[in-house]
Amino acid sequence: MDVRFPQIADQLLLIEAELRAQGWWDEVEPSAEALSSVEPFSVDTLEFEQWLQWIFLPKMKIILEQNMPLPNASGIREMAEMVFAQRNVQGRDHKLQQLLKEFDQLIVATR
């Protein structure tokens, strides 16, 4: 098992908690078509927060549960910065961006 797994699992829980705290957690799953997008971050079918909830978090959970290799790199924070800059969101996204930055740092940390 990769020694980063426990820290990454904790970070994923913090990301989920922040999505919920901001009211960005959906109770209704998007359509199968929306979830099957092949575009990076499903930008053509999902909002960024939906992608985090319905694609990113479940995939990371599977990686951890099945002891699969972690990705070699992550640029999730950069995507978040771009999305929130386009929306001109002030303040509400800061904590989420920090949590995503910490996730990115864990991914590139030495094993």
UniProtKB/TrEMBL annotation:
<protein>
    <submittedName>
        <fullName>YqcC family protein</fullName>
    </submittedName>
</protein>
<dbReference type="InterPro" id="IPR007384">
    <property type="entry name" value="UCP006257"/>
</dbReference>
<dbReference type="GO" id="GO:0044010">
    <property type="term" value="P:single-species biofilm formation"/>
</dbReference>
<dbReference type="Pfam" id="PF04287">
    <property type="entry name" value="DUF446"/>
</dbReference>
<feature type="domain" description="YqcC-like">
    <location>
        <begin position="7"/>
        <end position="106"/>
    </location>
</feature>
<dbReference type="InterPro" id="IPR023376">
    <property type="entry name" value="YqcC-like_dom"/>
</dbReference>
